[in-house]
């Protein structure tokens, strides 16, 4: 007996149902403020961490001096990114948008729980009690954004580094390569470890031949500094997916001091009008640090040391 053919209406219903299912799957894998929907090819090791991202929430007022005013990028949004990338730990960095008002960052830390750490932005006259309270809440360093105009200045770096030294915190610096080269003497005087944001913002044209690379490399070699393998788009001219021009600098850091590198997404990418694909950014580690043991160092072991996460086996 011949089978009856489905009606045109039935076929359209099936196709519509398939499209709905595919759309639902795509939505489930899509993350706000991140391009793409595929998972990274690199399989992150257990307890891998994203050591640089921000949270934005309109309930907290921006600093009047801030130049970046991104839309909301919430804890719930970021958890979608963690799931997509296969990450467990995260470091919430106070953005320049909120100046020295750390309430948004601290609220995010409370929501994330013990798998998160924070980086604050503070004023030199902050009470000691406030610093110790933030330490108990998971803060492990203070940031100076000297690229986007805001609440911090180069004059604040040294006095505040002395304020936080006894807490075991570090100073995180977002500086352009030229600024780093010009401030070498200051950087060498600081009593705390230094963490350089976004590959230390070395200009792609000069790369490892830029004077700032020599400064950063010297501090790495002396055990006084760390570099965040993050934000390659900030100085790349070649762009995705390989960011080939700045990748040479990243590979040089990893070859020189793999035990002094951590990775960060920089989500929600507040400086970028066209958002990058965070899976592509994580996959860059396959090029920058091809050995799985080095990837584990960068994603797991180094964050445990720098941020005080519980040690894995």
Characterise this structure.
With 313 residues, this protein is an alpha/beta fold. It has one domain: TIM Barrel (Alpha-Beta Barrel), CATH 3.20.20.140. The protein is built from eleven helices and eight strands. The radius of gyration is 21 Å and the shape is globular.
Question: Keyphrases for this structure?
Answer:
8 strands; disordered N terminus; TIM Barrel; alpha/beta; 313 residues
Q: Give unreliable regions as ranges.
A: 1-28
* Arithmetic mean pLDDT: 91
* Individual helix count: 11
What is the CATH architecture descriptor? Alpha-Beta Barrel
- Please report the distance between the alpha carbons of the first and last residues: 65 Å
CATH topology: TIM Barrel
Q: State the CATH class.
A: Alpha Beta
Succession of helices and strands: HEHEHEHEHEHHEHEHEHH
Structural class: alpha/beta
CA gyration radius, whole angstroms:
21 Å
The overall strand count is 8
Counted up, domains total 1
Let me know the CATH homologous superfamily. Metal-dependent hydrolases
Helix content: 40-55%
Produce a short descriptive summary.
The protein is α/β, with parallel strands linked by helices and 313 residues long. Helix content is 40%, strand content 12%.
SSE diagram, text form:
Elements: H1 8-29, E1 49-53, H2 75-85, E2 89-93, H3 103-112, E3 116-120, H4 128-136, E4 139-145, H5 154-164, E5 170-174, H6 177-182, H7 184-189, E6 194-196, H8 211-221, E7 225-229, H9 244-256, E8 261-263, H10 278-288, H11 292-307
Parallel strand pairs: 1-2, 2-3, 3-4, 4-5, 5-6, 6-7, 7-8
């Amino acid at each position: 007996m011949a089978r009856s053919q489905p009606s045109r209406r039935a076929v359209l219903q099936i196709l519509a149902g398939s499209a709905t299912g595919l759309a639902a799957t795509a939505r489930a894998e899509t993350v706000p403020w991140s391009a793409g929907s595929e998972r990274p090819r690199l399989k992150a090791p257990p307890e891998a961490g994203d050591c640089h991202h921000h949270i934005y929430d309109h309930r907290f007022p921006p600093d009047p001096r801030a130049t970046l005013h991104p839309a909301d990028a919430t804890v719930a949004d970021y958890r979608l990114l963690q799931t997509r990338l296969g990450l467990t730990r995260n470091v919430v960095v106070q953005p320049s948008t909120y100046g020295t008002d750390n309430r948004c960052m601290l609220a995010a830390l409370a929501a994330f729980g013990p798998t998160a750490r924070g980086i604050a932005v503070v004023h030199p006259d902050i009470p000691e009690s406030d610093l110790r309270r933030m330490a108990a809440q998971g803060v492990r360093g203070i940031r100076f954004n000297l690229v986007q105009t805001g609440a911090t200045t180069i004059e604040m770096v040294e006095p505040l580094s002395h304020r936080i030294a006894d807490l075991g915190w570090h100073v995180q610096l977002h500086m352009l390569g030229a600024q780093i080269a010009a401030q070498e003497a200051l950087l060498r005087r600081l009593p705390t470890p230094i963490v350089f944001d976004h590959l230390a913002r070395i200009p792609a044209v000069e790369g490892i031949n830029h004077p700032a690379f020599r400064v950063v490399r010297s501090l790495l070699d002396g055990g006084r500094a760390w570099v965040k393998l993050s934000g390659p788009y900030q100085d790349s001219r070649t762009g995705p997916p390989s960011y080939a021009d700045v990748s040479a600098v990243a590979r040089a850091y990893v070859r020189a001091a793999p035990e002094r590198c951590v990775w960060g997404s920089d989500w929600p990418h507040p400086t970028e009008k066209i958002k990058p694909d965070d899976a592509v950014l994580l996959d860059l580690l396959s090029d920058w640090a091809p050995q799985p043991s080095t990837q584990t160092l960068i994603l797991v072991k180094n964050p445990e040391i720098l941020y005080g996460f519980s040690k894995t086996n």
